[in-house]
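ingest -> validate -> predict -> emit
validate: passed (alphabet ok, no gaps, 442 aa)
predict: started
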Amino acid sequence: MSAILDTPPPSGLERHHEEVETVTIRFAGDSGDGMQLTGTQFTNTSAVVGNDISTLPDFPAEIRAPAGSLPGVSGFQLNFSSRDIRTPGDQPNVLVAMNPAALKVNLPDLEDGGTVIVNTDEFNKENLKKAAYESSPLEDDTLRGFRVHRLPITTLNIRALQEAQVQLTRKEMDRCKNFFALGVLYWLYDRPMEPTLEWIRAKFGKKNPEVGRANEIALKTGYNFADTTEVFTTHYTVRKAEIAPGKYRKITGNEATAIGFVAAAELAGQPLFYGSYPITPASDILHELSRHKNFGVKTFQAEDEIAAVCAAIGASFAGHVGITGTSGPGVALKQEAIGLAVMTELPLVIINVQRGGPSTGLPTKTEQADLFQAVWGRNGECPAIVVAPATPADCFHMAIESVRLAFKYMTPVFYLSDGYLANGAEPWLIPDVESLPKIEVK
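emit:
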């Protein structure tokens, strides 16, 4: 096994322990560096520990931008706290940068005096050029005013896996370096490794045990590296949050939206029909709803936006809970059909998971600019009700409310979510089914 794994902490090493109320971390790297997975695992573990959490995944719009380039940077921001929080945080306290491009894109957002953890192995001449650095930011004044930890993450990870005689190619070993970084952060903020180790075993145990073993070793090596070296002299703790008692689960806005509409259909005693054309960031609602056929949910992936809304209108006419989902560009195409639903007094729900920009816009960036489109976007006298969730967990309740209003007033209802809510996550207090109000269908 790796010497890094088995080395005990130096006896003379002085450690400082500090308790903090709230921490915001941003993991950033290339699209292939596994930053979304790293952030998700840190989030899940923080939820298990009992912290309140709020997340913001941020990934590029390009299908696969060139490795090491500025457009290809993928990030995941997590705010975890011992008190009630509502946002993923404004300025990160900690930035984990896996390459120069990740550092350049995200450094302006880091708070003054914040912590930077960089993978020094990636700061070579080629990657610096791709990130438009004339000189290495590790050697000039770029990082002045920040607490910088320079770690050869790639080298340490590869060495540990080679010493453990993991039967993988070097490229496959390199893909485990995100778990090394995760292990470092677990030690730094007093997180247990067990939830992630259990996830690795469940994910790879039978399908690819060698990959699972490699990720386990990388995680433990990162944790023990932080514990046994003098790189980090302070260990942080975030206490368990004081929240209302009950059963919680981590949920994203899109998941809460889908579950909320399934619950609404059950409360109304009507089958649910969801017609949609795939569009970011609303597509996950279609994916989630398609898993719930056992509740009588029918999902239809249409050939275009107009077909999707017209199918939902037909389902509503036939007595279903008719729902269609899209983003701003799709709403523009659906407006004439929505006018038909207003004329015929049909209870239709239109989900708009808003994204940035006019026209086709920016698929992976968010904006809350479609309110006037929802209220006034149709020709003639054509009013519609608009509801908007405030948090990822609130998406569940607003989904139910939109269906209730649609049936009460027999009219289309716009459900305005956005990319931050859709992809962000927070703890959700699972409600008692008996406490949910029935939806009256006349």
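Residues 1-9 have pLDDT under 50 and may be disordered.
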